[in-house]
Structures are given as structure tokens and as C-alpha cells.
Amino acid sequence: MIAQNNVRSTNNDPVESSESYPITGGTNGAGTSRLFRQFGSLFSSPAPTTDPAGYVEFGSISDPVASSGRTLGTFAGVFCPVALSMFSALVFIRVGFIVGNAGLYVTLLQFIIAYVILLFTVSSVCAISTNGAVEGGGVYFMISRTLGPEFGGSIGTLFFLANVVGCGLAISGCAEGIIQNFGPSDGTGSGSIPDGRWWRFLYCSSLNTLMLIVVLIGAEMFAKTSMMILGVVVICLLSTYVSFLTQGPMDVSIPHENNLVNFTTARYTGLQADTLWSNLHTNYTKDYTSNGNQVNFAVVFGVLFSGVTGIMAGANMSGELKNPSKSIPAGTLSAVLFTFLCYMALSVLIAATTTSTLLQNNFLFLGPINLWPTFVTIGILTATFSTGLSNLIGASRVMEALAKDRVFGPLMSFVVKGTYKNNPIAAVIASWVLVEAILLIGSLNTIAQINSVLFMLAYLATNLACLGIEITGAPNFRPTYKYFTWHTAFIGLLGTAIMMFVINSIYALSSIILCLLLVIALHLFSPASQGAQWGSISQALMFHQVRKYLLMLDSRKDHVKFWRPQMLLLVSSPRSCCPLIHFVNDMKKGGLYVIGHVKVGEFADNDSSNDPTIEEYTQWLSLVDHMKVKAFVELTLSRNVREGIQHLIRISGMGAMKPNTTILGFYDEEQSKDFFEHEDSPYKTSEFDGNGIKLFPYRKSGESKSLGVVDYVRIIDDVLRMRKNLCLCRHFHRLDKQMIARNNHIRYIDVWPVNIFEPKNEDPFDVVSQFMMQLACIINMLPVWKKLELRVFLCESETVSENSAAFERPAEHRLDQRLKLLRISASIHKIPEWSKDIDFAKHRNILKQFTGNSDSNQLMAEENINRSKLYMQRINQIIRDRSNATAVTFMYLPTPPATPSVDYKEKCHHYLDLLTELTFDLPPTILVHGIDAVTSTTL
Questions:
Q1: Where is region (Disordered) located (predicted)?
Q2: Are 390 and 211 in contact (CB under 8 A)?
Q3: Residues 187 and 131 in one domain
């Protein structure tokens, strides 16, 4: 639209019946400027806001210390949960299994590989957590604010499910420990508690309820519990180390459920060099707990890695930490180092004291060899209980963060309402219910592998987020954690991806597919629109790649074989030219499409403190979204329409990606139609009406136009002088694509490749004719238009066939051959009355006076003007007679009058009058003038 009086728009410009006039899209003067505007806000700092939890934010920086409810420090809030989660049941139950099968060398190598991957993932976590305030939700919060709401929501959902399943697994392990020591399977056959499927479910439910009570009391209670449990686990682990150093040789019983061997005891030797030597190398055998399945490197590593996946336990407590950006790196790294040293020492001591036979056939051998076997039992129960507790509180915090962000709309609003003193009571109870559902399954061996893969997927996403930000070089990514580089993120990403498939390729692939489905679903259906507030890594990556490829795109290497239309549609008011906007979107054929608009006014006289085009830019972007077209927007402020159009033609696009075709609406007196209000319009919307103000106003009936005829014709001349192809579009308010799709009456796309103003005795193969045939062919390639037949009309004057009736055939034959060479499927139609009823030679010299090809500076006689109008009316009648079933007509646009001529203003009026007569009452019509060759006949 074209606005005047500095800010307000009156839209009195000619344009497709006051509809389409000049102007482009984008704020930075480039076809890609929309991308650049979006990228600019990736790490920007918006105005201070208050989030649902009560934290005061400014951009990505908040003041968590000042907020209530944050009471945890590094040791209680991060170190203890991470250390306990990484110990889990592995430290007392599975290390012997690993050493006995893989040998000490491979075991140490596997621990090093696992901890290298974990260390690099922790580096990514530390980088994100020290680049701004981390709120509640831990990993979900970090990923969603970095990768955007779609990836963040999907990964957060999977991470929530992983925590739920992990809690169920830990509870089941704890129950197994209870049954193993106090039930019928304790070896004596007469335990103090009964066993059975429902008894086990009862024990698990009791443990789950106990965890629920602890978590409901609050995170501080959880932290205190964690510190106490960690102290107990460390004491139990120290007792194991002391036992290895002090206990002498003994025979240890083989569990009665091990039916793979026929002996009942195996040897524990104590510290001996021979025992260490025999356990150095691999000795894979069968696993007696899994129906005798063969053990291999992947199985052993899967067991090992699934036991040390608790590095996110501290990050999950981010909402309760006094200083997350300091506590998360320090607590997580120290916990990783502590558990690594414990596992390495434990592996060496096991290899030096225990025979491989005992390691492979009794996974609970640490109990019998301990100075006080009860220590091992306590260690198993406390380690598994704390792991379940950590997973339960982690799941509830992630669920709370998903609800606050409205990732699933109002579906989880009950979680936000059910928060008391910063403790998400509703989320805790909901997580508890889901854990109960997991416990009903009974056997969780298969789910345990899925659980490990889901955790790995979260780690992969974290590394991906950091790698993406580092690659894009975003200047606001300045983590205070100094040991992070893109190399660490890449190694962590590659390692987690490989290990996912090592653990279980089927479950890894399934989890990735599930994640992608969640990404697509959230992108399409999620009512949450947080991407603009959080920033999305996809925008930064696109900016990085677009800039790189734009620099590589060299206009000097353009070739006609790969030509495509790059459209600049100049629009006065989109209300009245919606069909044209849609039609040009079809005609661009994957090329650049820019919608341009000139706002008339003086920048210095503007009352607003800002450029008015900046304020209106978002409205135009909303228009593009409503129209569902793939277009950029370019606005400019200028003293007059003509000058503004010159600006847009020059600045639209970027580098070698610039519009090569300018499209204008026709200058006529037809009444404009408001497609946003019309009842039968497919573009009907009230989005641009509010508070009594209509956005994008247009020229009403009786209002004068702000653009004169001479200026309009001069704009046409400007476009051609700037070496841009030109299209003038008329009657597009009549275009109805839905009717074309439904109605079989509309059957044709017509091309009239003849210059009506200067008909010559030549075949219609000049640049302009080929350009209009190219555009018609492009339209005919699209689904809705493909059902229509392309017709090319052969128009010859009688002098062409003079003295030879047979000479008519070669012209038609040559046109047919040219269409075949250009691979254009079209039928050729001759016009008999063209040579019989019209004296072209008589009108040629008269019509030339109205075009840029005129060499005459003489005044035009009134008789010649009237004769020319009658001539145009006759041509118009011939075209109308053949257009009853035509959807769109392409016609030849002659050049406008040359500016340095006598009575230039009169010639402009006559030039436009003749075009008006020529296109009167036709179907939607495009007057085309091409500048350069756009077709190729070579490979």
C-alpha cells in the first residue's frame, strides 16, 4: 500500500483497481532481510518480565538469589544427586559382572570412554548454564531456550519419560535387593517376607509412596536426604575397599537361580598377582540373569553406561539452586571425578582379588566377602532409593517447566495451578502416578534399555545445542565456563550418538523417530509461541548458512539455463489485491518473491520517534502468514511513489539474489474490492481490523488517486530503464483459483505474442514474446493450473502471405518448432480476421507515436487518436471472442513514450488509454515486457 501525509495511508494509488502497486518486503532492503531481522533477536534482551515462578528476568539474566525458595548450594543441590545417580545399583551389583567378562583392560577402557563422553557432555551443560540464568526444568530449560520450543519440548518430554521410567527401574532394583536379602530367595528358602508378583508390586508401591512423601515435603528435604544417603553409600563403599584389602581366601556360594553351571561355589582369593593376571583380558561368557544370553562388548558397555547416566541430576535441581551457573559446573564436574575414581579403584581391586568364575556366576558376591555383609545390603538399598528419588523429583521439575511454557497448551495447566511454595505438588503427584503405571508392567528389563537410550538422547541434544551455537558464532554466547569449545561438543555429540546404537540400535532409532514426531507435532499444533522470546538455534544456523551461500552466489556466473523469475510485486493495499498476491506466488517457480510497499511522507516530518515502516513491518509479515505465500516484505518511506519504487527496485534482495521482474497493478478506474471483508472471499479475516481501525486501507469509490497518469507511465519507463522485466496486471480481482479447480468451463491459458502497437511481418520469437511464453509455461506447470491448456495465438498481417498462400504454413511450422525446442506444450491458433479485417500497415506509423520507438516529435492529430482507439477496440473484440473459457491472458506490453518528446504528457495519457481499450473486459490479463533472454534450447 502507499501511504501519504507522513504516516497515515490513504491508498489512492492505481493498482489493480487500486490494488497492486509498487513496493517490496524486508526491512534491510534485501529479499533475505526477513531472515536477518529474525536472527537479530536470537540472543537479544527483551524488556524485564516476571515469569510464573516469580523470578524477575531481563533477557536471559535473572536474579535467582533474590527469589524465594532457592535454598540449595553446590554440595547438597548438585554433587550429592549426581554422585548418587551415577552410583545407583551399578557400584554394588554390576561392576563385578563387567570385570569378569570384559577383563580389567577393557573395563578401564570402557570407563574411560564413558567418562570422556560424559565429561564432554558436562562441558556443554556447563557452557549453557554459565551463559545465563537457568530456571526450573534443568535440561529441558537449557535445550528449549537454545534449540527452540519444538526441539526443547520434544526432548523435554522424552527426558521426563526417561526420569519416570528410571524411577520405576530404581524402585524395582531396590525391591529386588529387599527380596534378595529378606525373602525366600535369600538362599535359605525361608525368608522373613513373602515373594510373588503382587507382593513385589506392593513393596515397589510402598517405596514409591515413601519417595512421594519425601519429595512433597520439598526439595530441601530431598537435599538433606541425599546428603545422608550419600554418606551411607560412601561408608558402605569404603567397607568394600577395606574388605578387599583385609579378607583372605574363601569360597562363595553360587545363587540357586544360576542354572548355567553345575558347581555350587567359586573362589575368592584375596589380593593375589595371579588373580590380577588372569582377569586382565576379556573372557565373555553367558549371562545367567537373562536366560543365558551371550555377553559381548556392546552388552557390557550398555550395562556400564546405563549405570552412570546421572550427570543431569544436578541440572534438574536448577530451580532450587541459589546460584545455578556456579553450582551446576562445580558440583557436576566434582561428582563425575569422584565417581570415576571410585569405579576405577573398585575395578582394580575386584580384578586383583576375585576369580573370573565367581565374577561371572554371582553378581552379588560383594556381600559374602564383606567384613559386615549388611553394609552391601544397605548400600544397594540406599543407592537405588536415592536414584529413584532423584528421578522422581527430576521428572516433576521437567513436567512443571513444560506446563509453565504451555508446550502442550492448556493440557497441563493443572500443574501450574498445583504449585505450593515453589514445590510443584501436582507435577510430583502426576509423576508418582506414572511411575506406578510403570511398576505394573512387572519386568522392566526391556524398558531399562529404552530408559538408557532416552537419557542418551537428552545428552545428544545438549551437545547439539552447544555445537550449533558455537558454529554460528553468536556474539552473545559467552559462557564463563572456559573449558568448552566446539570440539568438546562435537566429540560429546558423536560419542552419545554412537553409544545409543551400541546399547540398542532398535530402541535408539525408535527414540529418534519418536523425537522427530514430537518435533513435528509441536511445530504444527502447539499453541505455545515461545520461539521469538527464547530464540531458536535453527534461526542462527539458517543465518549462518544463508550468509555463506549468498556470498557464494555470484551474479557473474548466472546462466540462462537456470534462470527463474525473481518477483517484486509492488502493492498499494493488499486488501484489494489478494488474488494477485497469490497468483504471483504461483508464478515465482521457487524464485525470490518480494512484496513491496511505498509509504509516502518525509522522514524528518514524522511525528513518531521511529520510522513508521518499522512499526508496520510486523503487520505485513502477518499478512504474508495469512496469505500463506512464500514472500519477503520490503517497505520504504519516500517523498513520492515514483522515487520510492526506484529505491525498492534497487535495494530489494541481496547479492546475486535480487528481483529481475517487477509487477505493477494496472492504472484504471475500476472499483476496488475488500477481500478481507467479502463474504465469499477465501481471504476473509478480521485479523487486520481492531478498535475501529482497519489496517491496509484502500481507495474507496469517489476518492481521488494520489498517483497521476504521467507518473505511472514514468514508473513503467523507470522499470525498463533499470533493466527489469515488467508485468502490468489487470482484472485480477476477478481471479478465483477455487473456481478454476472446480469448474471445467475454465480451460485455457492464453498467450498473444504480438506487439499490437507495432505489428511486424516477423515470427513472434523476440525476447518479449519468449518471456511471456516462459511465464505462461511456469504457471501451467503448477497443480491447479496444470489441467488448463496453453494456447499461443499466431497473428499475421496480410503482407506476410502476400503472393503466396503457402507461405502461411512455414510461419506456423516455425512457431511449432520453436515451442518444441523450448519444451513448451501448447497449441497454436491462427486468427483469420487478423489479416482480413485489420489494416496493420495503415495503423503502424500512427501507433508508433505512442511508444518509445517513435522518432516523431510532431503533434498527434485528433483523427489519428480516435482511429487508434477504434483499432484497439477491434483487437480487444477479437481477443474477447476467444476468451470465454480463459483463466489468464498474457499480452505484449509495448514500451512507453520516450520522455524527451513533444507533448509527452498527452502521449502518456493516450498510451494508457490505448492499453485500457486493449484489455477492456478481458479475463485476468498480464501485459508483459521482457528485457533479456530467459529460455534455453541447450542442455
A1: 1-26
A2: no
A3: yes
Using alpha carbons only, give the angle 651, 561, 553 rounded to the nearest 5 degrees.
40
Separation in Å, CA 178 to CA 229, 306, 706 = 17, 22, 88
Do 520 and 605 lie in one domain? The reply is: no
Cα 592 from Cα 589, distance rounded (Å): 9
d(CA 601, CA 2): 10
CA neighbor of 173 nearest in space, from 243, 85, 96: 85
* Long-range contacts from 275-279, C-beta under 8 angstroms, 24+ separation: 275/351, 275/352, 275/353, 275/354, 275/355, 276/104, 276/351, 276/352, 278/355, 278/356, 279/99, 279/100, 279/103, 279/104, 279/350, 279/351, 279/352, 279/354, 279/355, 279/356, 279/359
CA distances from 652 to 39, 719, 777, 848 (A): 19, 13, 26, 34
Which string of DSSP letters, residue by residue, matches 425-437? HHHHHHHHHHHHH
Domain membership of residue 122 (yes or no) is yes
Amino acid at 662: T
Same domain, 275 and 142: yes
What pLDDT, in 10s, does the model give residues 58-115? 333 344 444 445 678 888 888 988 888 888 767 887 888 899 999 999 999 999 998 9
CATH number of the structural domain spanning residue 180: 1.20.1740.10
Which pTM value belongs to this model? 0.65
- Same domain, residue pair 499 and 630: no
Asked if the structure places residue 438 within a domain, the reply is yes
In whole angstroms, what is the distance from residue 496 CA to residue 283 CA?
A: 26
How many folded domains does the chain comprise?
3
Which residues partner with 729 through β-bridges? 665, 926
701 shares its domain with 742:
no
Q: Which tens digit of pLDDT belongs to each residue from 825-870?
A: 888 888 876 666 566 556 666 776 677 655 555 556 677 778 888 8
* CA trace torsion 640, 643, 649, 653 (10° rounding): -70
User: Rounded distance, CA 293 to CA 101, Å?
Assistant: 13
Q: Exposure of 118 by Cβ count < 10 A (0-12 exposed, 13-18 middle, 19+ buried)?
A: buried
- Which structural domain range is residue 786 located in? 735-798+808-938
Q: Tell the residue number behind the cell numbers 553409544, with chain if given.
A: 499
Alpha carbon of 813 to those of 466, 660, 806, 819, 827: distances in Å? 64, 32, 12, 10, 12
Q: Which cell numbers in the block locate residue 474? A: 553468536
187-239 pLDDT, tens digit each: 444 556 776 667 778 888 888 888 888 888 766 666 677 788 889 999 999 99
Handedness of CA 513, 516, 522, 524 (dihedral sign): negative
Q: Is residue 596 one of the residues assigned to a domain?
A: yes
* 911 and 770 in a common domain: yes
402 inside domain: yes
CATH number at 647 reads 3.40.50
pLDDT score recorded for residue 594: 94
Q: Which of 71-75, 337-341, 698-702 has the highest mean pLDDT?
A: 337-341
Same domain, 379 and 465: yes
pLDDT of residue 840: 59
Q: Exposed/middle/buried for 748, CB within 10 Å: 0-12, 13-18, 19+?
A: buried
Q: What is the DSSP letter of 284?
A: -
CA-based nearest residue to 15, from 695, 492, 594, 645:
645
User: Strand pairing partners for 636?
Assistant: 598
Cβ of 690: how many Cβ atoms within 10 Å?
A: 9
The strand ranges marked E within 418-556 are: 419-420, 423-424
B/e letters for 883-910, b = 16+ CB within 10 Å, e = fewer, are beebbbbbbbbbbbbeeebeeeebbbbb
Long-range pairs for 548-555: beta carbons < 8 A, 24 or more residues apart: 550/32, 550/654, 550/655, 550/656, 550/657, 551/655, 553/655, 553/656, 553/657, 554/656, 555/655, 555/656, 555/658
Per mean pLDDT, which range of 165-179, 526-540, 700-714 is the poorest?
Answer: 526-540
Q: What are the backbone dihedrals phi and psi of residue 24, each rounded to the nearest 5 degrees, phi first?
A: -115, 180
444 and 588 in a single domain? The answer is no
